[in-house]
Design goal:
Layout (H helix, E strand, L loop, with lengths): L4 H9 L5 E5 L11 E6 L4 H13 L4 E4 L5 E3 L4 E7 L6 E4 L2 E5 L4 H10 L2 E2 L11 H7 L2 E2 L2 E2 L4 E7 L5 E5 L11 H5 L2 E8 L1 E2 L2 H17 L7 E4 L9 H7 L6 E2 L2 E3 L6 E4 L5 H19 L8 E3 L7
Parallel strand pairs: 2-5, 3-5, 4-19
Antiparallel strand pairs: 1-2, 6-7, 7-13, 8-14, 9-10, 11-12, 11-13, 15-18, 16-17, 17-18
C-alpha cells in the first residue's frame, strides 16, 4: 500500500469517503484480485473530474474500472486511487440517439433502445460490460460491434480536462479504440440508431440471449471471452485441439462448456488465471503456430513473493 495519510485527508476534505485497502475481488466477475489502496464510486461527471485532478495534482496513480466484467486484477492489487464508475449510469433517449453514461450496463442501453423502438444494439443485449468498457475495447458479439453505432464520446484526459471525439476520430478497430490509445476516461457515449419494429427488435435480442445462455459457462464466475479471435481461426476449437479443455490450475479451469472461457470453479486466484492463460498461449503457439492475444484487460501488481 502507498503510505500517504495526506492523500486520505485530501479526499476527505474534498467531500469523499474512500474505501481503504478494499478487496477488488468483491467487484470483479472472476471473484479474484488484490486490494485497492483507495476506492471511490463517483456519482457525477464533476466528481470524476475532481478526483482525476486530485490524483494528478498529488502524484497518485489512478485506475479506472467499469463493470469489471472483462477484467483480471492481479493478486498484488492496485496502488493508488481506483474509481469504479458504476454509479454514473444515466441513459436518455434523444430522438433516434441514446446517450448513456460510462457506468451504465450496455445490456441496459440495449433494453432502453428496444423500449424506444430503436434498432442497432440488439447484438449487445447479453454483453455484461459497461458503456465505458464497451467503448474502450470496441465490444462486439453475434456479428455486431460498438463502432457500428457509437457516434460520439465525451471523455476526460488524465489531467481531468474534458474532450469530445466523434466518427473516425474514435479510431475504432477490432477490440481497439481512441480511448485505449490516449488512456482516456469515458464519461458518456452517444449511440446513433434507427427506428425499428419493437417486436422484431425483441425477437433478435431474445435470439442472441438464447444463444449466449446455451454456450458460455454462466454457472461459474468468469471474465467472459479471454482471447481475441486470431485471424483465420476460432479460439475455442484451437484450445480444444490443443488438448486443454478442462485443464485446471488452482481454482481456474478452461471451461468444459466453452473452451474460450476460463472459469473460477472454487477459490481461484488471479495468479491461477494468468498461469492458465500463459499455458494456453504457449501450447497453441507450439502446436499450431498461432499467437493468441488476451481480450481480457489485465491490470494491477503481481503478488509479493514470500
Amino acid at each position: 500500500m502507498l503510505v500517504d495519510v495526506d492523500f486520505t485527508d485530501v479526499l476527505t476534505q474534498a467531500g469523499f469517503t474512500p474505501l481503504r485497502d478494499e478487496p477488488l475481488s468483491k467487484y470483479t466477475f472472476t471473484k479474484t484480485g488484490g486490494r485497492a489502496d483507495w476506492l471511490i464510486f463517483p456519482r457525477t461527471h464533476e466528481e470524476t473530474m475532481q478526483l482525476v485532478q486530485l490524483a494528478e495534482n498529488h502524484g497518485i496513480p489512478l485506475t479506472i474500472i467499469g463493470n469489471a466484467s472483462n477484467l483480471i486484477v492481479r493478486d498484488g492489487g492496485i496502488r493508488g486511487l481506483v474509481l469504479i464508475l458504476t454509479q454514473m449510469a444515466q441513459i436518455r433517449i434523444e430522438e433516434t440517439d441514446i446517450v448513456a453514461e460510462a457506468g451504465a450496463r450496455i445490456i441496459d442501453v440495449a433494453e432502453a433502445a428496444w423500449r424506444a423502438g430503436l434498432s442497432g444494439l440488439e447484438f449487445a443485449a447479453g454483453i455484461p460490460g459497461s458503456v465505458g468498457g464497451a467503448i474502450f475495447m470496441n465490444a462486439g458479439a453475434y456479428g455486431g460491434q460498438i463502432d457500428e453505432v457509437a457516434a460520439a464520446v465525451t471523455y476526460l484526459d488524465r489531467s481531468g480536462h474534458q474532450h469530445r471525439a466523434a466518427g473516425e476520430a474514435l479510431h475504432f478497430s477490432y477490440r481497439h479504440s481512441l480511448i485505449q490509445e490516449n488512456d482516456g476516461i469515458v464519461l458518456t457515449a452517444r449511440f446513433h440508431l434507427q427506428r425499428g419494429d419493437k417486436d422484431a427488435i425483441r425477437a433478435r435480442m431474445d435470439h442472441f440471449n438464447a444463444q449466449r445462455a446455451a454456450q458460455p459457462p454462466l454457472e461459474y464466475p468468469s471474465c467472459g471471452s479471454v482471447f481475441k479471435r486470431p485471424v483465420g481461426h476460432f479460439t475455442g476449437p484451437l484450445i480444444i485441439k490443443a488438448g486443454l479443455q478442462g485443464k485446471q490450475i488452482g481454482g481456474a479451469q478452461v471451461s468444459n462448456k466453452h473452451a474460450g472461457f476460463i472459469v473460477n470453479i472454487g477459490q481461484a486466484t488471479a495468479s491461477d488465471y494468468l498461469a492458465l492463460i500463459a499455458l494456453i498461449e504457449q501450447t497453441v503457439w507450439t502446436k499450431f503456430g498461432v499467437r493468441l492475444e488476451p481480450e481480457v484487460r489485465i491490470i494491477g501488481e503481481a503478488p509479493e513473493q514470500k
